[in-house]
Automatic annotation (TrEMBL):
It comes from Glycocaulis albus. Residues 89-210 form the Histidine phosphotransferase ChpT C-terminal domain. It comes from the Bacteria. InterPro entries: ChpT_C (IPR018762), HATPase_C_sf (IPR036890). Coiled coil: none annotated. This is Histidine phosphotransferase. It holds the Pfam family HPTransfase.
Amino acid sequence: MLAPMSTQNTPSASELAALLCARLCHDLVSPVSALGAALSVLDDENAADMRDDAIELIRTGANQAHAKLEYVRLAFGAGGSRPGSIDTSELKRLAEAMFASAKPDLVWKVQAAGLDKPAARVLLNLVWLAVDNVPRGGTVTVEASASEGGDSRLRVVAAGPRARIDPAYIEALAGRAGEDGYDGRSIQPYYAGLVAREHGGRVEAHAEEERIEYIALLAPQAKAQAA
């Protein structure tokens, strides 16, 4: 279980780092554990008949771990040291690899050729949240547009049977902690909202029956002019 840490609306830098690391480690446990289990089978001389299955498990676990690390490198991190925009075809590749085994289908309707890194970071986090919203399957539709001035509009819709979102996540997107504070899961919507707010924007989520819609706006140019 990912334990809560702070009930303050603004977690400290150390709390933010710790909770994001907890989120990452929680998702890496499964593929890494699969690798360990498969290696144990290969080391067992009495399990020769399971060798092919073990090798396939290693291949699957390694691919999953690689996809998660690539995705999180940009979703939580800098995604490289160079500034500038990220090609949306690369974002699509990351998302398809990350959620290849997920139940909902990913529907990519992105118009922008590229997104600035902050917008790309927000988009990847919202796609991740949306996939989690529909564990029984359905669709996650991704839309994004960008202006020449660097402003971005993102829209991600999760639709499917029993689609739901924790109300604490809606609050976290707006930078408000729930009664139990932030934990390794609610820190992700908080982080997505934080990145948007730091770049002159906001993120909102709207829940309907079997449908969750995320809308994010980033306006770094307007923020710079107002500063």
